[in-house]
Fold:
Amino acid sequence: MRLPSTIALVSGGASGLGNAVVRRLVGAGAKVVIADLNKDAADNLAELLGPSAVAARADCTSEEQVSEALDLAEKTFGSPVSAAISTAGTLYAAKVLSRKGVPHPLEPFERVLRVNVLGSFNVARLASQRMATREPDRDTGERGVIVNTASIAAFDGQAGQCAYSASKGAIVGMCLPLARDLAPMGIRVCTIAPGIFETPMMAQASDEVRGSLYGAIPFPRRFGAPDEFASLIEHVITNPYLNGETIRLDGGVRMT
Structure:
């Protein structure tokens, strides 16, 4: 799929990895809808990037709000989306049983699953419906591509990560059946499982924590740059033979 002819929806696109994806895609000539709960941040980014970007307030778990964001893409750019990238997500850390004998609360576990899993699936199902109405690419036969964001926690979950690891494992598990379901429509699906990235969340970590995490990464011994994640998104969009695959992007780290 050629980026200058791509119309993309980026869920969670106003901050962190999503922000880098939006900037990368617009810089390569794509048109982008920045879908985010933080409408002010999305508006500011859209204003910075110019007419190739537009902002929409969208909760990824809401059918109505995601549909409105997809409508906005068609209204603004004249065609249904051809790419949907889900980077919106949340986390919660707690052990199944605390030192005081208190069990893991159910509400935050359910919330993490709802945002990360249901939200990613909601964007995928609604975006694929729009993609299926597009004319296939004359060279590749593609109508669209969907990219979800998992985490190395799907494979290397640490203590206290039951909710987060379960949600990211579910995103990995969805990848192949989504790709198989959507293949007849010419829609590809991939998942990226990033390692430890330099995001606003990690910026809050202490020097001690950061140092211990650096030591676990074989090479390069640093956190990933958000643009490196965005670069892989760009490659997945433009490489027509990538389908049904979960790609680790982690510097070789395997968490203990």
